[in-house]
Design brief:
- Helices cover about 50% and strands about 20% of the residues.
- The protein is of the alpha+beta class.
- The protein has two domains: about 5-125, PAS domain (Beta-Lactamase), CATH 3.30.450.20; about 150-390, 2-Layer Sandwich (Heat Shock Protein 90).
- The strands form three sheets. A five-stranded antiparallel beta sheet has the order 2-1-5-4-3, sandwiched between helices.
- The longest helix has about 70 residues, at about 130-200.
- The two termini are about 80 Å apart.
Length: about 400
């Protein structure tokens, strides 16, 4: 290489906006550019001629020596990666700009400089800003994920509260239902007990047949009352595990929970099974019961409020290859358009102080999120129709 070419190359390397060191195979410094003088406390005259590992003791000598010799042998560049190796030697990072790293993070390219003289150049590129931004992005994403998890947990807790409120809102009506369903069997038990008392008071002999009849009829009444309590208790039981259940049983359990009010107000219930009555679904049966009870109660309230003659609730169960559909259709005249658009909005109610506005909202959440189905409402024939589509397992 001519002296002029060496001068031109040296001037070029001295003007680049990166660090450049030229070393021989023994790692002695032959060139040290101005950029490195500006970023370290080393002067060119103090460095040239000395081993670079003596000038910068933190350099891993064996690693650098191996890379330099491979570069000269293969006449091909080799590298230090800032993300893997951090830095070749310590250059303090600007603490005003960077907060993550104490030292400048460096990509280093070791390239042949003059193979005949066993010289290589170490090109040092500052990667601190890039890695700082990358680290901040990682930290930001981790914090974002943490916040998302917190918000998801808050939403789940809020949903649990709303689900509980929805069930509590049904409690008064359910207690009234129990009281109504217990009234007749309690009267029957009272009559049977009074009959025994009268027989005993009149010192009449009580026959075995009478005792058997008393036992059978009172146990029938007691079992009915016990079933009512079980239905009520199961309604408030929280399921955490999906399980197989008979859809027909869910419908029957839902109807038992509202039966007394439907009977009291002479609301006719018609069920049309267009499927196998032993149809099995997988999911949360108690939550589906809650959805059905909410819809049945809303239908009952509409029929009573509008004083419909011959009030009816039709339940139609059908299926396709992928979905099972349950429709609840009343004859209460339908839902006005301005109300229908808000019917699943939380706390929206048309019942003034008598309603909480969370029953249908929670029904939608349960169907959409817990049961992975859909729920919709439309006006059909003589009234409102709530349609629930549930995926088959």
């Amino acid at each position: 290489m001519s002296n002029q070419r060496i001068v031109n190359k040296t001037l070029f390397l001295d003007s680049v906006n990166s660090g450049v060191v030229v070393v021989n195979s023994d790692l002695n410094v032959k060139f040290f550019n101005s950029w490195l003088e500006a970023h370290t406390d080393k002067k060119r005259d103090e460095v040239i001629g000395r081993p670079i590992t003596e000038v910068f003791p933190e350099i891993k000598e064996k690693v650098l020596s191996r890379k330099v010799k491979n570069c000269l042998k293969l006449k091909s560049p080799t590298f230090y990666d800032a993300e893997v190796d951090g830095y070749l030697f310590q250059i303090p990072a600007d603490k005003i700009i960077y907060s993550t790293f104490e030292y400048m993070q460096q990509n280093v390219t070791i390239a042949p400089y003059d193979v005949e003289k066993d010289l290589v150049s170490l090109m040092i590129y500052d990667q601190t800003q890039f890695l700082e931004m990358k680290r901040r992005c990682v930290d930001f994403n981790e914090e974002l994920q943490r916040q998302v998890k917190i918000e998801v947990q808050k939403q789940k807790e809020q949903e649990d509260i709303l689900l509980h409120q929805s069930r509590m809102a049904s409690m008064g009506e359910m207690i009234g239902n129990i009281a109504h369903q217990w009234k007749q069997p309690l009267n029957g038990l009272s009559i049977y007990i009074q009959m025994i008392y009268e027989e005993q008071r009149n010192k009449q002999k009580i026959s075995q047949e009478f005792i058997q009849e008393f036992y059978e009829k009172t146990m029938f009444q007691i079992k009915g009352m016990s079933q009512t309590v079980d239905d009520f208790k199961n309604f408030f039981k929280v399921n955490r595990q999906k399980k197989d259940f008979y859809l027909k049983r869910v419908i029957e359990n839902s109807l038992r929970l509202v039966d007394s009010y439907y009977t009291k107000h002479k609301i006719e219930i018609n069920i049309d099974y267009q499927v196998d009555e032993d149809l099995i679904l997988k999911g949360f049966d108690n939550e589906l019961i809650q959805v059905f009870v909410n819809i049945l109660n809303n239908g009952k309230d509409a029929l009573i409020e509008k004083k419909i003659d011959n009030p009816k609730m039709n339940i139609i169960v059908s299926e396709t290859a992928e979905f099972t559909t349950v429709e609840f259709e009343d004859n209460a005249g339908g839902i006005p358009d301005d109300i229908m658009k808000d019917i699943f909005v939380p706390y929206f109610t048309t019942k003034d102080d008598q309603g909480t506005g969370i029953g249908l909202y929670m029904s939608q959440r349960i169907v959409n999120e817990h049961l992975k189905g859909t729920i919709s409402v439309s006006n059909k024939n003589q009234g409102a129709c709530f349609k629930i589509r549930l995926p088959k397992t």
